[in-house]
Amino acid sequence: MRSLKLPDLDVHLRYHDLPGHGAPLIMLHGLGCASSFDYPRLLAEPGLAGRRALLVDLLGFGFSDKPEDFSYTPGAQARALAQWIEHLDLLEFDLFAHSMGGSIAIELATLMPARIRNLVSAGPNLDSGGGTYSRSLASWSEQDYVATGHHTSFRPRQPRLGRQHGRRLSPGRAPRGEGADSRQPGQLAQAIAGAEHAALHHLRRTLPARPGYGMAAAPRHRYPHRRQCRPFPSLG
Fold first, then answer.
1. Could you tell me which of 96, 99, 100, 56 has the C-alpha nearest to residue 74?
2. Where are the alpha helices (DSSP H) in 28-154?
3. Per-residue pLDDT tens for 19-37?
4. What is the pLDDT of residue 191?
5. Cα 160 from Cα 38, distance rounded (Å)
6. Which domains does the chain carry?
7. Intra-chain end-to-end CA distance of the chain, in Å
8. Tally of CB atoms within 10 A around 183
């Protein structure tokens, strides 16, 4: 794993730089995740194997520093990434990002529009500031969240059966318009994994093929559940 000290912030951003061919692929993770953990297995897929990839842990996540005086807004994260990209002298790159990382990627695209060849964002908030669910989590203080917030936010819901406007409800599914997603946390994790798989499949189909890494190759199996993923050892 490599480390870069960002001079403007006096913190270290840590990342894997996997050697390969073609324009680099930068991969940004979502809230509560880390690129160094989530993405190495994906890069063994036939459609991505052999190309250069940069797996960066955002500030506050994974192996990167967690400064207490950093704002952690999408804009602040994007500016930190821009310093990192300038240091690496990346004149062009492809960008894949998931969830919160997608919001940061959109901010980054406004800072470096000429350098990003392709942007694939899976489930982002298109406006800065987070979605309804993200904002509800961010509203807790750290002490209150540790005490009761996690249990309150992720408590299981009872299956709901019945008719709403002449339509039978599936177990665990709330009627349209009632707000929060009623799926169990395990179901949500599977849905998120499926969204990542679909976005990466789109990435393979839309990015032009490059000699040596077969970008157009189709995946042979589904995206593995993140609990099965393991981080690479030091790649620096």
1. 100
2. 35-38, 74-88, 100-111, 132-138, 142-144, 150-154
3. 999 999 999 999 889 999 9
4. 57
5. 33
6. 2-130+195-228 (3.40.50.1820)
7. 5
8. 15
